[in-house]
Amino acid sequence: MDIQEQLKKIQDEAASQISRIRDKSALEDARMRILGKKGELTMLLRSMGQVPPEERPKVGQMINAVREKVTAQLEALEQEVKKAETAKQLEKETIDITEPRPHVTAGSMHPISLVLDQILQVFTGMGFDVVEGPEVELDHFNFELMNIPKNHPARDAQDTFYINDNTVLRTHTSPVQARTMLSRKPPIRIVSPGRVFRADEVDATHSPVFHQIEGLVIDKDVTMADLKGTLDAFAKALYGEGVTTRFRPSFFPFTEPSAEVDLTCVNCHGKGCRVCKDTGWIEVLGAGMVNPKVLEMCGIDSKVYKGFAFGVGLERIAMLRYGITDMRLLYEGDIRFLEQFRED
Ligand code: PHE
Questions:
Q1: Disulfide: which of 4, 115, 192, 291 matches 214 by Cβ 3.0-4.6 Å?
Q2: Is 28 exposed, middle or buried (CB count within 10 Å of its CB: 0-12, 13-18, 19+)?
């Protein structure tokens, strides 16, 4: 077979092969087999040596002409294959807009988390740091450094969960006061939220596990007026301008003087109603000036520094804020209850 015959054969075979090709990989195979480095046309070009010199230009032109023709055929085919593949893909990807979407439900914040976030915002806005303490606490911090002596009723096993003789589940967040005074130098301004534990029976207003947020300020000229101003600002930020605080004398071993602090009833705004038992006030927290004994036990010179502290029950704040009348609802995890506190 001379070169011309071979060329003709290559061209014919290419044409019939190409007409049968339907996909990309067959197309690439054909391209390699005909035009590739070891392809039929390339090999033919290499055998030009056997062609008499005077015929070489003519044969060369013929080979190039076939190469161009095959290349053009392959390119046209490539366009077609691409189009067909795109069409196939699009068909596969059609979206059925009548298909019902999967049921997606967004989560929501727990009421305790919601009020805690709001409270933290108020206090960090006033320059307080947020610190946390352990839930399993040494008797030393929970009681001793809080000036709660050995025979104090608060230590009774009826109220306190004991881990062992000197370890308890903390009964309040106040031990964080001691931990902070021992680890920081005044001026100190912290709030400390967290879980606390008391051996109480469950009812509409009690739970063995509940939440408090503790506040502590230590500085040179801190007075009861600063405590009152801070708590007023807190009450107004949380419940609105019309709400203020009322201090009643009280007793805590770790503060002197001590106060029970009431807020203007958020339900009746002081007029008197069922929620405030017609007093116009609702008790929400305990507070006072840090007992100098506590300051001294925690390494702070009580002649130079004074301090105030307060402890707020978060459950009570959340219940007042959202009109929840039974504390148990906060812990039952009933989705129908919890869903009501979505704030979007
Ligand atoms: N620790 C007290 C309680 O749990 C609250 C409190 C904190 C009172 C700080 C005064 C100062 O009842």
A1: 192
A2: middle
SS3 state at 171: coil
**Alpha carbons 256 and 275: distance in angstroms, whole number:** 30
- Write out the two tokens for 306: 């004074």
Helix (H) or strand (E) holding 25: helix 24-35
Domain 111-341, what fold? BirA Bifunctional Protein; domain 2 (3.30.930)
Query: For the chain, what are the domain ranges?
Result: 3-93, 111-341
pLDDT at 262: 95
222 CA to centre of own chain: 37
pLDDT of residue 1: 67
286 CA distance to ligand 1 centroid (A)?
5
Tell me whether residue 7 is exposed, middle or buried, using C-beta atoms within 10 angstroms of its C-beta: 0 to 12, 13 to 18, 19 or more: buried
305: closest CA among 290, 316, 319? 290
pTM, entire model: 0.71
Task: Rank 2-6, 50-54, 114-118, 147-151 by mean pLDDT and report only the highest.
Answer: 114-118
Count Cβ neighbours within 10 Å for each residue of 285-298 and write b for 16 or more, e otherwise: bbbbbbbbebbebb
State which ligand 1 atom lies nearest to the alpha carbon of 171.
Answer: 4
In the chain, the N- to C-terminal Cα span, in Å, equals 84
CB 81 within 8 A of CB 45: no
Instruction: Report CA(176)–ligand 1 centroid distance (Å).
Output: 11
Q: From the alpha carbon of 286, which atom of ligand 1 is closest?
A: 8
Q: In angstroms, rounded to a whole number, what is the distance separating the alpha carbons of residues 271 and 278?
A: 7
- Report DSSP state, residue 172: S
Cβ-contact 152, 143 below 8 angstroms: yes
The C-alpha atoms of residue 76 and residue 171 are separated, in whole angstroms, by 83
